[in-house]
Amino acid sequence: MATSTTTPGKTQNNQPHIIVKNLTMAYGSFVLMREINFTVRHGDIFIIMGGSGCGKSTLLRHLIGLKEPATGEIIYGDVNFTKADPATRELMLRRFGILYQSGALWSSLTLAENVGLPLGEFTDLRPSQIREIAALKLALVGLSGFEDFYPNEISGGMQKRAGLARAMALDPEILFFDEPSAGLDPISSSLLDELILELRDSLGATVVIVTHELASIFAIGNSCVFLDADSRVQIASGDPKELLAHSEDPRVRKFLTRGKEGGQSENHHV
Amino acid sequence: MQQTPAGQGSVSLTRTDRATLLVKFVGPWHLKRDVPSAKVVEGELQSSLPVKRLVFDTSELTAWDSGLIAFLVQTSAACRARGVDQDRAGLPEGLRRLLELAEAVPEKKGTRSAEVRSPFFERIGKASLGYGLSVGDFMSFLGELTVAFGKFVRGKARYRRVDLIEVIQECGANAVGIVTLISFLVGVILAFMGAVQLSQFGASIYVADLVCIGMTRDMGAIMTAIIMSGRTGAAFAAKLGTMKVTQEIDAFTTMGVSPMEFLVLPRVIALVLMMPLLCLYADFLGILGGMFVGVGMLGLSARNYMQETISTLTLTNLFGGLFKATFYGVLIAIAGCLKGFQCGNSSSAVGDAATQAVVMSIVMVVVACGLFAVVFNIVGI
What we know:
The structure holds 2 protein chains of 2 kinds. Chain A is of the alpha/beta class. In chain A, 34% of the residues lie in helices and 24% in strands. Chain A has a domain at 14-95 and 174-180 and 205-259: P-loop containing nucleotide triphosphate hydrolases (Rossmann fold), CATH 3.40.50. Chain A contains 9 helices and 10 strands. In chain A, helix 3 crosses helix 4 (127-140), helix 3 (111-122) runs parallel beside helix 5 and helix 6 runs parallel beside helix 7 (214-220). In chain A, 41% of the residues are buried. Chain B has a 4-stranded mixed β-sheet, with helices on one face. Chain B is of the alpha/beta class.
């Protein structure tokens, strides 16, 4: 790919990969979040966290271009994604891998076809090669032998993993995960965490995860942004373990300690 | 206090002194039986004698469930509004705890939808603006579709040929059965309508002309279009709407594959290819239906009927009908796909999308049919 700046397996640590500047998210005239600022470095596992309904998933939709910022901009490497023309955007999108909350596998295609579709569209590989690569990607997520199954024939956890295999199809530079552990049992969830770490290390990809699963946040996250639904701004950012150790903000403490610290909030329900 | 039948909860109010109201619950308070409304306490609080304190007696309460909690929550809201103290010591422990839980989080201001009826003109204005927006959406959808079609003509559109063939089979071959039934019956109906009048003049043979012109010029196309609106338009909307709900369409977009090319284009092309074929078939079946009536009921010979039909059949009428059918096909595909794309994020939204798609495509087809009639008349076809 012409605009590609990294190759799999090679990390450029500490270089900014995603920069979000003064981002305001709004639905029509309803402002969801104001003035979001953060930087994700190459090779980071970056967590977007906050209570339910605070706009985590919406922030992710902004990052992948499904929603346009009301104000502010999103920059990938040295390309301004918000101001890019459609053709550039399409090229940039191909360097992303996205795992949707529900898996979002194409229900009329088999798993191998799901994983192979992006390969067929954007590479010159022969069908037999595409099938081999699809089988490989499925094997990486522990789904060998399920190539010819349709999404509705496998369990929710398997759909998630198949979605991950599809997200990895084009060896993306950035992997986005929307609530990867939602609906998974604790064991599958921790296996998925290990898989994410493994992928980051082997592909050299940057990972952005929307989650409120504390176990995952501390196990794999090395940077984060914390969105607060009531004040509609980001109230913390940095390493989640550092935040747990040093943050003074009662709202952050309360979240990171499952409500054991940080005092009584008026909105403990969601 | 009113007498209540045994086995039903009741409440009695007594003044223990001038400012204290004793609320006594009696019997089993079950939601399944009717329970008294908190209005009785509110009424007492409003009475001329001011109440300062509320105490409860549950010594004769035999059982309770959410019915009693709802009663107490309403009562205490009324008490708070009037600054009346409540002494909950008389309530069972579990009930007290549930009440505290219900009142732990104060009501979030502004979450309750305000049921303010906006003035008449404001509603008209909002509805018009909504229509304006939907016209805009329709136009931009049409524009994107045109771009995608341009790509298709140049052979650059991204879609799977398998999908195209699947849609063709679904909206072509699989629709043959229903089209057969409906158009044969339409031919029969047309023939009967004509026969009653024409046989009065001994001109029964002209039933063949009536059916032939009627079917080829308009009825074949419009009946096929209405069948396809209900069958295929709704299916398109439901399928794309479901894909929207499960984020499958988002997955296409973020992969850099245009859903317009991948999902809409094959559907439009399939209908454009299949509608004229189905319409031709419907014309034929309609004429057959007419002949069935002509030969079976009016005593015409099959040979005469066919001859009369062939002499009336003109290419202008036939191709006019096929052209209309093709155009209706585009309208149905657009309505189905547009409503599918505009689908909201719930399962009921998918049903709404399918309904709206059928309504929109039938309206567009009938309006187009009217316009065609006027234009064809002016042009002299």
